[in-house]
Structure to design on (936 residues):
């Protein structure tokens, strides 16, 4: 199977999307960070006051999505028209699950932007909490759904 | 438990490490991307020729580590003195496992740099292969070990 | 009053502008730096020769405007179609007043880009002159006017 | 008076600080944003819940300080060892005053980093509130104090 | 002859392209790096295995093209729709010649993006090989052709 | 001959310089842009007034040097302690020759920083003048000399 990101000499290239039709595209990606009870409660206690950890992670995720084309070598720069990140608690497993929704109107999809948003936000959780728990695990970063574009809709 | 990244008003701050003693610090982080057999074989067939996917991911990981302080809001900029990323195949599970080793001599550790290296490299795998498989999952991003610094060594 | 940059959980989001109609948008912003006579004359003496301070500030302002979406967390990346910065002398007060005019054709305005241009250019004046005068004050950074977009025109 | 940032041909240069002695350096800078009562109360009402505006501004300020050498053409890149930003309310004038404290151990001071932190944070206030009030004014951005370095201490 | 990048006061400005008609634009740029036989063979021996030097240079060139508007002060940010870099060997002269092809649909051309791609890729060759040969020379960076835009097609 | 930037699997790595001794390091690099008489005179006529082209190129070169570790994948981030760029006219050949001098105190050299400074400045000349002459050629980018570091001094 030929990889789209390689040219005929098998060197990386940025795929030519010039002939694609611009359309509205949305991608949702999710990911989880699992932590100790102590770290989990530090987030929530904090949360009752100012939500510093959660909000810092959300802001980092939004800014990280805007950096996607700088981080992922073959990604196209694009106009992101909206980003929203939701944080869900799992009080039994001491986990936070993040869902990022990214939207654009253009010639390329925003799957990578949604994945970068989730990934950067989860890493920020790690950074804010690593003094309490170094064993935290980031897991299950995956595309939940996408709409728009020639390759059609995708739903996990 | 007080979070080190918050000030007395519970607003985020960049921790003052000015009084810490510079020392040699090393961090190892790992992470996995699981994919379909078809995607897995596309990487390896490619690999037999020029290793385009693996090498692009490694380069992205190294460059991503250098961007850590731009991505993670409370991270200190620092001098990275070395980065090496290893890619391991799991032919039975169709997974690639990455291990990033980052080194510095300074006042702060490089756990976040190692985690960012792994995370960016795994996202690059996803980007290069998403035309073949959109269901890939990035998982088990975690700190394997760290040495140096006042908080002492850590081994998972 | 609901803030547009917050979602229903009061966490920051990048507003969805996907449904807005693209239009030509222009924003003008201004700001002032007040300094000692000695610093003021150093700029002008220099100016008679090569205008190094003023021109460095203008270039920094133009480049700063292009970084707006990296600096301001909830700002959309956008295509800037033109930037021009004017520098006006006030020989009596030893002040320089800057006016930045930024233009785009898109779904979001360029107020923040014009304000970032002015702000970065003024900070560059400060940097170039701080060896002479550390008491300089940057003041009156404000939007002068904007045209285009659904919210209509604005004139101070 | 010769400007340190110009070479003998009056072209800009990055000053050679190679022979300076590294020392602990701290800079404090402040700045104010004045707004309508309506905007002011939107921040505080918000603040009672999650402090979204204030916290987003603080995070932007910290990240902006780290970008100083990218924004200000002749600034040296440096290792910032700590950043803290304080936000003070003025309920009578509907103003927020920000004070940024930046610290380093090195060969150059962090005045510009402190000024960039304040400036970026104030611009973020503007961005978050501009849907309510476009007439806000950013003012009185100035260096409050600095310690360390050959040129000695400064206090406004 | 008036320079388009200067305003009426001879200060730099970003040219207003707002009234230009968007069109498909392509630019090809080339450049050469000449090196010792020893360095040349190190690339090729390497190439037989994994092509590490060539591929790292190509990736750097693609990422460098995306940074054009950050590097070149008066360049507009734009949507790049495709980048491909070809590397040609000259076994007699121990030279590599690179050709970058960049495409966009927009209001400004991509000459600078193609030149930045070539330039960054050539510098990366230098970096990867400088331990073997410090006398390498980068030369003949030039625009080969451009199509699209009001100023018409160009062919060297 | 083994390339230092490759690991035992021939994948790129950032060389570990942790054990190197910090020292003062200086690098000088040069490069030339050749142009038509018309373009050449446009620079100089401009130069008689405000030197806009030359000064913009110098500023771009200084800022480009600071971006070296973002552009060149395996380059270490480092503290640059000084940058100076000289521009020399060749009135007979209609060429400008640039020499960049970069200095650091650290564990790695600044050859790449000096080469990036020259390269970015020359590309900026091209950008500022391309409306007059698209046939300009950038050539002879090379390291002139370096001092400091274990590999010893180099002089072309």
């Amino acid at each position: 199977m030929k990889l789209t990101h390689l040219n005929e000499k098998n060197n990386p290239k940025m795929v030519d999307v010039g002939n694609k039709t611009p359309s509205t595209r949305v991608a949702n990606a999710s990911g989880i960070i699992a932590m100790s009870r102590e770290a989990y409660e530090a987030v929530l206690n904090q949360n009752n006051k100012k939500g510093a950890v959660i909000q810092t992670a959300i802001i980092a995720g939004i800014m990280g999505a805007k950096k996607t084309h700088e981080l992922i070598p073959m990604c196209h720069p694009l106009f992101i028209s909206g980003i929203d990140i939701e944080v869900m608690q799992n009080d039994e497993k001491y986990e936070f699950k993040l869902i990022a929704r990214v939207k654009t109107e253009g010639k390329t999809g925003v799957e990578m932007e949604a994945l970068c948003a989730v990934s950067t936000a989860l890493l920020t959780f790690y950074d804010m909490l690593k003094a309490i728990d170094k064993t935290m695990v980031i897991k299950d970063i995956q595309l939940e759904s996408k709409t728009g574009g020639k390759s059609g809709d995708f739903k996990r």
